[in-house]
Amino acid sequence: MPDAFSKKAGYQQYFGKAHDMVRRSVKEFMDKEVVPFVDDWEEAGEFPRSLYKKAGDVGILGTGYPEAYGGIPGDIFFQIAVCEELMRPGSGGLAAGLGSLNIALPPIVRRGTPEQKERFVRPVLAGDRIAALAVTEPGGGSDVANIQTTAVRKGGHYVVNGSKTFITSGVRADQITCAVRTGEAGSHGISFLIIEADTPGYSVSEKLKKTGWWASDTAEIFFDGCRVPVENLLGEENKGFYTIMENFQSERLQLAVMANMTSQLALEASLEYVKEREAFGKKLKGFQVLRHKLVDMATEVEASREFTYRVAAKIDTGLDQIKEISMAKNFACQVSDRATYDAVQIFGGYGYMRGALVERLYRDNRILSIGGGTTEIMKEIISKFIL
Ligand SMILES: Cc1cc2nc3c(=O)[nH]c(=O)nc-3n(C[C@H](O)[C@H](O)[C@H](O)COP(=O)(O)OP(=O)(O)OC[C@H]3O[C@@H](n4cnc5c(N)ncnc54)[C@H](O)[C@@H]3O)c2cc1C
Question: Is the pLDDT reported for residue 323 higher than 70?
Answer without folding.
Answer: yes
